Amino acid sequence: QLQLQESGPGLVKPSETLSLTCTVSGGSINSNSYYWGWIRQPPGKGLEWIGTIYYSGSTYYNPSLKSRVTMSVDTSKNQFSLRLTSVTAADTAVYFCAALKTSGYCSGGSCSTRFDPWGQGTLVTVSS
Amino acid sequence: EIVLTQSPATLSLSPGERATLSCRASQSLSSYLAWYQQKPGQAPRLLIYDASNRATGIPARFSGSGSGTDFTLTISSLEPEDFAVYYCQQRSHWPWGITFGQGTRLEIK
Fold first, then answer.
1. Terminus-to-terminus CA distance in chain A, angstroms?
2. How far is CA B81 from CA A99, B58, B85, B103, in A?
3. Rg for chain A (alpha carbons), in Å?
């Protein structure tokens, strides 16, 4: 079955760039059944969607982070990646990657979508 | 941006009791809402999608209902392992975006 695993540095200095990779196993990142997403969770707080990418390279970002986020996909390695520039202490969080299943059905302004499965998450601390 | 508001923030119940969690959207979602359970130190787990469909392997005591702007997650009889934080989530079509509710913490009374 589909499994996802995050990797990357656990400590990033303020003003530098956070880079994480998610490796997909048990399935192909080229699947037209899935998008691929990043979600983060600051310590003790709720979930925040960062962005989503399709295997074709189409990207969708949270407007609050859009100016600092870049996502990419490497189909040869079955991986997708996140770059977040100019980080501050407010970017300290557990970062999750997840498969985003969408049926293609939309009604009005909303669409059928769910994250499943998720990676285990990786804590990234921004500190000098 | 569609805002999801969950209530209550914290729900204190005993094992065996029925839990009712609410998620209200700022705009109609039709029936396109998902629910997740998160335990400490773990990734969220999908429970319900499209408002009322249980995900694979989810026990029958979990059920979802609602449409439009008001949605409910019900746990019919709480087991000890059900005490966790629960989130709702939606995806808007235009602009393309995903939001989560702020979560409901279900704690043992």
1. 39
2. 25, 13, 11, 17
3. 14
B-contacting residues in A 26-55 (Cβ below 8 Å): 37, 39, 46-49, 52
In B, minimum Cα distance to A46 occurs at B102
Q: How many whole angstroms separate alpha carbon A98 and alpha carbon A49?
A: 11
Angle at B3 between CA A125 and CA B5, to 5 degrees: 90
Q: For the beta carbon of residue A76, count every other beta carbon within 10 angstroms.
A: 7
CA distances from residue A42 to A39, A109, A115 in whole angstroms, order as listed: 10, 29, 19
A75-109 pLDDT, tens digit per residue, is 999 999 999 999 999 999 999 999 999 888 888 88
Nearest chain B residue (CA) to A102: B91
Cα A127 from Cα A114, distance rounded (Å): 33
pLDDT tens, residue by residue, B53-103: 999 999 999 999 999 999 999 999 999 999 999 999 999 988 899 999 999
Rg (CA), chain B: 13
Pick the residue of A5, A48, A112 with the most B CBs within 10 A to test the interface with B by mutation: A112
Query: Chain A within 8 Å of B34 (Cβ-Cβ)?
Result: yes
Q: Are A1 and A99 in contact (CB under 8 A)?
A: no
Cβ of residue B70 closer than 8 Å to a chain A Cβ: no
